[in-house]
Amino acid sequence: MKRDPLLQHDSSFVDSAPAVVANVLDPIEEWLYSAPRWLPTAHAQTIVPALFGRKPAVSYRRERWDTPDGDFIDLDWLAHTSRDVASTAPLFVLFHGLEGSSDSHYARSMMAAAEARGWHGVVPHFRSCSGPLNLLPRFYHLADSAEADWILRRLRERHAGPIVAAGVSLGGNVLLRWLCERGTDASIISAAAAISAPLDVHAGGHAISQGFGMVYTRSFLKSLKKKALAKLAQHPGLYDPNAVLAARTLHEFDNVVTAPLHGFRDTDHYWSSATTRAHLKHIEVPALVLNARNDPFLPESALPSQAEVSACVTLDQPNHGGHVGFMTGPFPGRIDWLSQRVFGYLEHFLSRG
């Protein structure tokens, strides 16, 4: 199988990294993704895993944290059923995607992988995503790095072992923004992985506002509008309910709800602030950035090259996989390639914890 040059380490990273990580991607062929023939299109590779993928059974224990601003978030901790886990075992933190949760197919798959390795695992829910509506007149957003910082630092205070983190789609963007902003201060975690993050939010927003992409947009808006109207019942006068109902694209919805609620002038200001592509060169912690070139949520032209990113960043850009898809095997398929790829990367950096 031919080696993809985008998957090769920058030599300066290998030279400067601890010896334990020198061969993180060898043999690289182990991780080259190939889509099954029965999933021939980007949309099939995206939709089938999300709707029909066989999610492993994992158990969670919920914990509620009060936030410094008078709100709350819910964290679902992996509840190991077959063994006791040492307090110093690695902790895997997963930030979910837009309107996702600990029950999302990728979350269950990765928590099952953590359990199999004897790791701790936790899914911190963004505000309003754990079931009950949060209290304040705000939700969560693509640039919510301050929330990630508070969560990760509190986890660092509590956990005795190394911490690694991953983020999926929106959660991946939040994690990358935090890594870009914090530089060496992000070394409270040993390594990170961002999966299908919208590295150029303008390009991604445009991609799902036309053609078949509107299928995804309508699905998101159905959930987001319901929450937005419930938030109006909590806090009357926040925004115009008719404008919420009239929104046909995420750009229109963000202009009415997300941007003004979170301190942005408008959608364009919000999306520009949330875009991470130009800032990936500031990352100082080992990070895997995984994006399929056929992701319906982000055009291939928006993907960075290795020359644009920090030597600490490993780009993995397979030709196929869709958006958070990466299904493998004969029908009905498996959804565990993604978790194996992510953990195969992260586990090499545990000595940094």
Automatic annotation (TrEMBL):
- Give one GO term, molecular function aspect: short-chain carboxylesterase activity
Coiled-coil intervals, chain numbering: none
Query: Mind telling me which Pfam families this protein's record contains?
Result: Abhydrolase_1 (PF00561)
Q: Does the keyword Hydrolase apply?
A: yes
AB hydrolase-1 domain: residues covered: 90-330
Gene3D superfamilies reported for this sequence: alpha/beta hydrolase (3.40.50.1820)
> Active site annotated at which positions?
169, 295, 323
Q: Which UniProt keywords apply?
A: Hydrolase
Q: What InterPro entries does UniProt report for this protein, alphabetically?
A: AB_hydrolase_1, AB_hydrolase_4_sf, AB_hydrolase_fold, ABHD4
Checking SUPFAM superfamilies in the record gives: alpha/beta-Hydrolases
Tell me the NCBIfam families matching this sequence.
Answer: PRK10985.1
Q: Which family does it belong to?
A: Belongs to the AB hydrolase superfamily. AB hydrolase 4 family.
Q: What is this protein called?
A: Alpha/beta hydrolase
Species lineage, top-down?
A: Bacteria, Pseudomonadati, Pseudomonadota, Betaproteobacteria, Burkholderiales
